[in-house]
Every structure is written in C-alpha cells, then in structure tokens.
Design a protein that fits this description.
Layout (H helix, E strand, L loop, with lengths): L4 E4 L3 H9 L5 E2 L16 H14 L6 E11 L2 E3 L5 H11 L3 E12 L2 E14 L4 H9 L20 E5 L2 H5 L3 H8 L2 E2 L2 E2 L3 E2 L2
Parallel strand pairs: 1-2, 1-3, 6-10
Antiparallel strand pairs: 3-4, 3-5, 5-6, 6-7, 8-9
Helix pairs in contact: 3-4
Length: about 200
C-alpha cells in the first residue's frame, strides 16, 4: 500500500502484524488521556483506540492514522497491563481454568476525522496450571506490557487450552477488521466510510 499510514501504537505486536501483512507504515507513540471512567466496560478498547489515533492525527496532516487497544475481560473484571510482578501473578491466578474474552478496538483517522472504528472479540480458555508454572513464566518477564499478563504468541501460549476467534486479535490487532478498515482507502482517499461493532 502506497498511502502514508501511521501506526499510533507502541506495541511491537501490532507492528509485527502489519509487517506480516505487507503494509507500509511508520510508528508514532500516542499520548492521550486513558482515563476510562464513565465508559461502558466493553467499549473501552475502541474508545482508547480512537483517542490514540486522534492524538497523532491532529499532528500529521494528510496521513491516515491507525490506533488500536486491547483488553482482557473476565467475570466483569478488566485486565489491562500489569503494574508489577505481583499484579501479573494475581491476574494469571484469576484467569486460571477460566474462559475470558480478549477485546481489541481499532480506529482510523485522517486530519482529525474518524473514518472507521470497530472492535473484535476472541474467547480464550486457560487450562488449570500450577502456581509454580505462573512463577516460572513471570520470571521470564514476557508479561510486562501485555493485557492479562500473557503473550499468546510467545511463551504465554503454555496457559492456553483453546481459542475461539481471531488469534491475531489476542496479539492486539484483529487482521480481518484491520484489512476492512484499510480497504476503504483507495489511491490515498477513503471511500465507503463505515463504523463496525
């Protein structure tokens, strides 16, 4: 794709997925308000994706900006990035032998205007692993910047018993939804604008 795309995300997994898809882009780290008070729980990922993309779009004219955000939801509890090792251990204990939902939101902006927004949900079931396995995983430091304190594409795969839905969504960027968003761009212009839930 020849149009100028900016990824408003510091996530190396989102960048990895875009590269795998053969999409040209550059990265700009977003700086925005991530206070989620008064936002319905399931709407948080899409709202944060919009805020991230908008914060970058306001600075770069004539560029398409893609934002994304991913959170883990289990029994009405939101699991974001762990604050420390203790928090990560707590998260993995709570997710053990349970099914949780990974929700990713994406948003596409140009010149401060929202062109596309959507979200994707994947159901993940964790097996009944031991405390010892949790501590071994935490010691490898893979958990640090990941919602739910695990990386499905890495050694965190050891906890997963089954996945129902898009695997890449668990990594942080739902592929089909992202392609749908970017397919609206033709010769550097957007057509068929759409909002998807």
């Amino acid at each position: 794709m020849s149009f100028p795309l900016i990824l408003a995300s510091k996530s190396p997994r989102r960048a990895q997925i875009l590269k795998q898809l053969g999409i040209e882009f550059r990265i700009e780290a977003p700086h925005c308000d991530e206070n989620t008070v008064n936002i319905p729980i399931q709407g948080i990922p899409k709202e944060l994706a919009k805020r991230k993309a908008l914060s970058i779009s306001a600075k770069f004219q004539n560029s398409f900006v893609l934002g994304g955000d991913t959170l883990v939801f289990c029994e009405n509890t939101v699991f974001g990035k762990p604050k420390n090792k203790e928090n990560a251990v707590e998260m993995l204990k709570k997710l053990r032998n349970k099914t949780h939902n990974v929700v990713s939101g994406i948003a596409l902006y140009k010149d401060g205007e929202l062109l596309f927004e959507g979200e994707n949900q994947t159901e993940v079931h964790f097996r009944d692993y031991s405390d010892f396995e949790i501590l071994n995983y935490i010691a490898e430091m893979e958990y640090a910047d990941k919602a739910g304190a695990y990386g499905a594409q890495g050694k965190g795969a050891r906890f997963i018993e089954s996945i129902n839905g898009c695997f890449y969504n668990v990594m942080g960027l739902p592929v089909a939804l992202t392609i749908e968003a970017l397919s609206k761009i033709k010769n550097g212009e957007v057509y068929g604008r759409r909002t998807r839930k």
